Amino acid sequence: MSESSAGNEPLPQLPAAVFGASAQTGPAPSNAADLALPRERLAGWAWFVAAVALLLGLFYLLAPILTPFALAGVLAYVLQPGVDSLQRRDLPRTLASARYNRT
Question: Is the pTM of this model over 0.85?
């Protein structure tokens, strides 16, 4: 049998343009360890997740204290246009605020 038989010939290489810009040009990973994230990157994600969990836990614990402040901010945002309207009618801002909140 000759060496030029169909079973021994290597497959032709396709141009990179066929696969697009995201094609992998290097060798395929040989095992699962090659597919794992680097240790530094994994540690960074662990710190990020821990910080978010800590922040959410802190918000949960401080909810009874923070809720009135959040509601006050929403109330001030909602009442702002009415106070501005009264202030444009030459009413001082303090009186406009007191007048608008009393009605």
Answer: no
Distances 57 to 30, 40, 46, 54 between C-alpha atoms, Å:
42, 26, 16, 5
| 3-state SS class at 11 | coil
What would the two tokens of residue 52 be? Answer: 């978010």
Beta-carbon count within 10 A of 83 CB: 20
Residue 88's Cβ-count burial label (10 Å; 0-12, 13-18, 19+) is exposed
Residue 31 gets which letter from DSSP? Answer: S
* pLDDT at residue 63 tops 90: yes
Q: Characterize 31-57 residue by residue with b for buried, 16 or more Cβ atoms within 10 angstroms of its Cβ, and e for exposed.
A: eeeeeeeeeeeeeeeeeeeeeeeeeee
Tell me the domain boundaries of the chain: 39-102
| Model pLDDT for residues 22-58, shown as the tens digit of each residue | 555 555 556 655 555 677 777 888 999 999 999 999 9
